[in-house]
């Protein structure tokens, strides 16, 4: 952490205009301050200060570094301190989690089980909901959402990305069993979600692109879970995350060589500073996601 300390000392010298004053403010010896600045200058290959017997002033390179660091160094230092505190803290307490119904009741149960067995002082309350704005209502510490183009409030922690495929219930929509090309989707009843309401952008296995302009649709929703249920009921063909579509025995994937816009899985928290238990759970969710892919 010498580099971070050197940057902190650099900022003090720049603001106070004195190595001696900076050493007092940092509670370091004058020789330590000089050593840190000299090492920083050596690493960067430039002089950061112009020194005279009366004062210390920033060089042009030092001024450029100061302007870049001034608005950011405090945040970086605070973030590193928070992480250090979390690493020394045994996870405990209650984590309130919200997630889409299907996602929460299947995918999240593995990391939940692992965390509870590893840390006996942790408790978890899982609320399965299809409201992606739950976190902004104060209803959860972590809200898992499936994102296409939906705006979200809070701090986003990326868990991973699902590829999406086209699914339908062929027991109801028997005519779709003969579907062989994306062009034929123009005459198919579609189930739409926010982000793909006017067109479906598909990518073939060899990288070819095709844009399906929506001509017919029966149902539009802002949640993946509702689109899944509509597809199961035979209301139309839906673009769904592939693991979700494959988990439903009543659904068949159409045009398996074509995929839709990837669906990003995110964990949303109200701030960057979260409990050790919550951070551990997010890390476990990432590990489980990567294992499943």
Automatic annotation (TrEMBL):
It comes from the Bacteria. Gene3D superfamilies: 3.40.190.290, Winged helix-like DNA-binding domain superfamily/Winged helix DNA-binding domain. It holds the Pfam family LysR_substrate. Residues 1-59 form the HTH lysR-type domain. GO terms for biological process: DNA-templated transcription. Keywords: DNA-binding, Transcription, Transcription regulation. One of its GO terms (molecular function) is DNA-binding transcription factor activity. Belongs to the LysR transcriptional regulatory family. This is LysR substrate binding domain protein.
């Amino acid at each position: 952490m010498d580099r971070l300390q050197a940057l902190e000392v650099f900022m003090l010298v720049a603001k106070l205009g004195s190595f001696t004053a900076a050493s007092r403010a940092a509670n370091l010896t004058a020789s330590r301050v000089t050593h840190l600045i000299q090492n920083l200058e050596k690493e960067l290959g430039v002089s950061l200060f112009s020194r005279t017997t009366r004062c210390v002033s920033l060089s042009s390179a030092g001024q450029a570094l100061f302007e870049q660091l001034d608005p950011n160094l405090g945040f970086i230092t605070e973030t590193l301190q928070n992480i250090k505190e979390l690493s020394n803290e045994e996870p405990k307490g209650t984590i309130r989690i919200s997630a889409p119904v299907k996602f929460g009741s299947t995918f999240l149960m593995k990391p939940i089980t692992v965390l509870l067995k590893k840390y006996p002082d942790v408790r978890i309350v899982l609320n399965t909901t299809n409201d992606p704005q739950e976190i902004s209502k104060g209803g959860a510490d972590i809200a898992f959402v499936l994102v296409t183009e939906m705006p979200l409030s809070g701090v986003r922690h990326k868990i991973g990305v699902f590829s999406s495929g086209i699914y339908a219930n062929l027991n109801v929509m028997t005519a779709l069993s003969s579907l062989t090309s994306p062009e034929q989707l123009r005459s198919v009843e579609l189930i739409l979600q926010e982000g793909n309401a006017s067109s479906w952008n598909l990518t073939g296995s060899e990288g070819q692109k095709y844009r399906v302009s929506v001509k017919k649709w029966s149902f539009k929703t802002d949640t993946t879970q509702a689109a899944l249920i509509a597809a199961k009921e035979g209301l139309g063909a839906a673009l769904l995350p592939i693991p979700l579509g494959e988990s439903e025995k009543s659904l068949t994937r159409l045009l398996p060589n074509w995929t839709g816009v990837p669906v990003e899985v995110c964990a949303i928290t109200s701030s960057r500073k979260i409990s050790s238990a919550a951070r551990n759970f997010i890390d476990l969710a990432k590990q489980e996601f990567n294992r499943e892919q």
